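Before the break, one more example. Copy the sequence into your notebook; we will annotate it together after we see the structure.
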Amino acid sequence: MGYPGKLLPQRLNRLIVLVAVGLLLSACGGLRYYAHVAHGQSQLLLKQRPVDRVIADPATSPALARRLELARQARRFASQQLGLPDNRSYTRYVELGRPYVVWNVFATPRYSVDAVRHCFPVAGCVAYRGYFDEAKAKGEAARMKAEGDDVYVGGVSAYSTLGWFADPILSSMLRWDDDELAGTIFHELAHQLIYVQDDSAFNESFASFVQEQGLKEWRASRKLPPLLGREQAEDDGFTRLVLDLRNRLRQAYARGGDEAALEAAKQAEIAAFRERYRQWREANWPDDHRYDAWVAAPINNARLLPFGLYDQWKPAFAALFHQGEGQWPVFYADVRRLAKLPRDARDGELRRLAGATAGGQAP
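Here is what the structure looks like once it is written out:
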């Protein structure tokens, strides 16, 4: 979710900028939506407090001060060691008073796994629509469901405005552990550095690679041991299961038939997925039940959309980083070269790089 404009010091000017932002977004979303987005972003701007002041404030709890101090150090490391933008982002703090900053609404047609897309200036087209208010997000989801779409609403703890505003540290980000907090700062700053319109898989895979590689270097700088790969391996395995379900549903819908036949095929594939999950977990992770609730809850096409978005091209970026001998400036230059290619050529180059990784030419 990116908003064009500039961060101005005067409160009135901030609000004027946000009204202009809303007018740009109204081409896609209508007056009510742009007013909502403008208000939500303005509230974040107006509630920001410099991290330094929050840490120094005697009223700040020691736990909050410790987390913000860690975020401050991670922010400095991001620019000094990872070559990420050195600006005011993540130097201010906002207490939200709610669990998420935004709720995204995902939707697909009832018998399709392709997203209903929404297009915005600067950010381009994405597979969701964000709301700063949970009730509004659920209201939009209910409207789309009534029109026959599959819908899913997911909370978001952090997002990037692509450098148009100084993104703050949000209280929703502090619910994570230290690694996730630092890694998210790296991830969101990567979006500010390089972003390609209408290519979410490229953008998220790039930022996710920067997050993971940056976290390795961050932990090493703090004399912390490397992270164990068990959790990542389990996450990757579950993601593959969900992506396999999505592919099976795509094939089932492509075979066609009347609505009754399509619905029967859909439910059969979802039931088979649950059985494959049960067998996979019992064979590999019998004592880990972290995904059980997700699998047991109602599943539809829209609920599958976020999977794979963040890691489709991570092997390709790992190969590119290896080719540049782990030098961040070289890596970013190579990523910018890819970003300038036409979509088909870019995807082809990413496939080639990912194949090199699979073939053992990159770590």
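Residues 1-29, 359-363 have pLDDT under 50 and may be disordered. The two ends are 33 Å apart (CA to CA). Try to locate both features in your own notes.
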